């Protein structure tokens, strides 16, 4: 690309960025049209701590134990395969 083309392109980008009115994206237009007739309900920024169940905390421990168990099984399996391999 020549230097003149790069300067023209840079000018076009500066011109576009300096526009007073920018058209919203298609998704923004779609959501604005949808929400005009059916506005969304209020959504809290953070969930209430009362809604966090004990099951959720137990499942994190279970998944951690499962991952660590799988890692230990792979280590034992690799050690067993190395022990059985003839030299």
Describe the structure.
- There is one protein chain.
- The protein is 67% helix and 0% strand.
- It has 87 residues and is mainly alpha-helical.
- It has one domain.
- The longest helix has 31 residues, at 54-84.
- The mean pLDDT is 78.
Q: Count the helices. How many?
A: 3
Helix content: 55-70%
Rounded mean pLDDT is: 78
- SS-derived structural category: mainly alpha
Q: Would you identify the regions where 5 or more consecutive residues have pLDDT less than 50?
A: none
Radius of gyration: 29 Å
Shape: flat
Order of SSEs = HHH
Beta-strand content: under 5%
Number of strands: 0
Total domain units: 1
Major sheet summary line: none
Question: What attributes characterize this protein structure?
Answer:
87 residues, mainly alpha, 67% helix
